[in-house]
Amino acid sequence: MSIILFFFALFSSTSIVTVQSFCVADLKAAQTPSGYLCKAPESVKVDDFVFSGLDPQNTTNGISISPAFVDQIPGLNGLGFAAARLDMDVGGVVPMHTHPHASEMLIIVHGTVTAGFISADNSVYIKRLRKGDVMVLPQGLLHFQMNSGKGKATVYLTFSSTNPSVQLVDVALFGNNLSSDLVTKTTLLDLYQVKKLKGVFGGSG
Predict the structure, then answer these.
(1) Signal sequence: where (predicted)?
(2) What is the pLDDT of residues 8-41, one digit of tens each?
(3) How many CA atoms lie within 13 A of 78 on its CB side?
(4) How many CB atoms lie within 10 A of CB 90?
(5) I want to staple 88 with a disulfide (CB 3.0 to 4.6 A). Which of 35, 92, 154, 163 is the partner?
């Protein structure tokens, strides 16, 4: 009985601070390492928690990605997850890349996809996936996806971050103004090849 009275007194106390249930992103404010600042509660609407844009888009170089990140769903702010839709034409490839701040899960909903990642000890994990299969790609590791079937493929992606960053290996190496001599020395590629790749990816130096 004393325990019941204790909780009754606790919840009826005027000193209790109301805890906000969520922090909808104020997309007009600056983004911080921990996310966006919160919108004023009175300006929050149900549409802050809804997104209707996971339709297939026109493919570029054989793929299209439709994100459902915090910029599309402000209500995701601070919740630690996000999603996307990946559509791939036959032979379409998402090149080797990494998400420094998020793990990723692939859910195959149509077609056949070969996916894989490279661990920190250079072990390689590759799997040919079909409709209904799920694969996890651990945070920060190099990975790829490729349509290895005879028709189009559709994959839903989930991430352990509301705004997963991405770094494409080729763009990171050859799409910048880092000296070609330095890239040559640090990659063991020859200078001619480095300059050629910088030309392809828009780099200089």
Answers:
(1) 1-21
(2) 554 555 444 455 788 999 999 888 777 889 999 8
(3) 12
(4) 13
(5) 92
